[in-house]
Amino acid sequence: MRITVFRRLMAEEFGSPRAEMLAADHVFSGLGGRTIDQALDEGVSAKEIWREVCVEFEVPKERR
Q1: Distance between terminal CA atoms of the chain?
Q2: Closest by Cα among 13, 10, 38, 8 to 24
Q3: d(CA 50, CA 23)
Q4: Which of 35, 38, 46, 63 has the smallest number of Cβ neighbours within 10 A?
């Protein structure tokens, strides 16, 4: 998954302002205690991050 696709999915699911806040501030235990932005910077795939977001926020399967 491309990062641009990931960012679009985040914006569609949470709205742009909240998606940006979550990426910068929300720490995910499933990402090793990192934020989305930290995980992306450290090379974690956008697809893996999206899976963690979906689990953490219980995104319905049809939108995963």
Answers
A1: 12
A2: 38
A3: 11
A4: 63
- pTM higher than the cut 0.90: yes
| CA–CA distance, 25 with 37 (Å, rounded to integer) | 9
| Angle between helix 3-14 and helix 16-25 axes, rounded to 10 deg | 120
Selection from 51, 64, 47, 55 nearest residue 13 by Cα: 64
Q: Which residues pair with 28 in a beta bridge?
A: 34
pLDDT value, residue 59 = 96
If 0-12 CB within 10 Å is exposed, 13-18 middle and 19+ buried, where does residue 31 land?
buried
> What are 23-58's pLDDT values in tens digits?
999 999 999 999 999 999 999 999 999 999 999 999
